[in-house]
Amino acid sequence: MTPRFAPGVRLHEDKARGRTVVMAPERMFVPDEIALAVLRLVDGKRDEAAIVAALAAQYDAPEEVIAGDVKALLDDLATRGALIRG
Amino acid sequence: MADAPLALLAELTHRCPLRCPYCSNPVELARAGTELSTGEWERVLGEAAELGCLQVHLSGGEPTVRRDLPEIVAAARGAGLYANLITAGVLLDAPLMARLVEAGLDHVQLSIQDAEEAGAERIGGMRGAMPRKAEAARLVREAGLPLTLNAVVHRQNLPNLSRMIERALEWGAARLEVAHVQYYGWALLNRDALLPDRAMLDEATRVVTEAQQRLQGRLVIDYVVPDYHAKRPKACMGGWARRFLGVSPAGRILPCHAAESLTGLDFPNVREVSLRAAWEDSPAFNAFRGTGWMPAPCRGCEHAEQDWGGCRCQAFALTGDMRATDPACALSPHHAVLAEAVASAGAPDFRYRGFTREDILPSHDVRLSNA
After folding, report:
1. What structural domains does chain A harbor?
2. Do A23 and B54 touch (CB under 8 A)?
3. What's this model's pTM, rounded to 2 decimal places?
4. Shortest Cα distance from B144 to chain A (angstroms)?
5. Is residue B53 a known part of a binding site?
6. Cα(B79)–Cα(B76) distance, rounded to whole angstroms?
7. Do A12 and B52 touch (CB under 8 A)?
8. How far is B178 from chain A (nearest CA, A)?
9. Which amino acid positions bind [4Fe-4S] cluster, per UniProt (chain B) (predicted)?
10. Which residues partner with A23 through β-bridges?
């Protein structure tokens, strides 16, 4: 399962408000800090397990705890059409 | 101080080869000669990004009638805006598509008027539109751009809703917007022919809800309901001058694209003031911002910061008072006018949009013989 952004979806620096948002066709999503950390690792090359491993190393947390959060986030954004679960 | 707007609706022109009877353009359409120039749009897009807008919706009329559309798209992307094109698709050929992709276009929203050719031609008022739209959809997908189909639905095409959803799948759309007609301008003129009854609305909602579940992960379906059957008004534009602004073809700066129907407000023009000055300081933008302007029953209402009093244009069109509570609210003393409109709907024919014609023939039937 290698997630990637759907066509027309990308991270965008919202300079006026000092935050990073997910830009999508005629809509946007405002990720929280954890969601943003996940989305920064979505590059169409890393699979879900690699994303979890990278976050576990980055935050010094157990993979099994992080895996649930990552899956929930990826599922949610896939349902909204922002991500494709490869 | 007002929060910064999130998006700009750039209405590049009122010209359009289609004549949809629910067109959201004003009944008084702007002529080509009054349209903003390429350079003026480039400046406006820069001002929008600087003000805090993140996306621009390039709309009309039909935006592809403007030969400088690729330059305008490039200016939007250059300013850091996400560029959506909202089009009927009938003029979108391969060379134009290539230039738009080169300019950095992010997304295309393509309208369909009905599921099949005959109905689509009758509603859109243009022969041969449907195959051209299919071709436009193919070009968009071939270019790798995301495609949204926009189906405006009403009494005359609601029976075909399931087949419109099939079209979205067939044409490769990732998203479908099913939007019930909102009754302003041309649509208000044609309300008797367009407004569905309660049973039609309920059936449409059932079809959409079923498809949303069945197609999860394949097609996202957004659903915009008509407020004539509602008890609470819509939070029109997310509240007056809270999140969006628009610029008309002739440069008027508007809190929503229908706002020119409000007589008595003086909307600023990009030829005279900056978008920031209009957004922050103009009397028109501040007229209905927040809750301080509200009369009863909105004043002090627990829903005041959810629906923001509903829609000013609808209040004005149906009550003659733009400060009134939107009649879509059950608490409005005018709420009954909506039920009356629903009860009297059912006219078979509509009036197509178009430019007002200055007749060169006598407008009366002058009989010269058989007197």
Report:
1. 3-80 (1.10.10.1150)
2. yes
3. 0.93
4. 7
5. no
6. 5
7. no
8. 14
9. 16, 20, 23
10. A10, A28
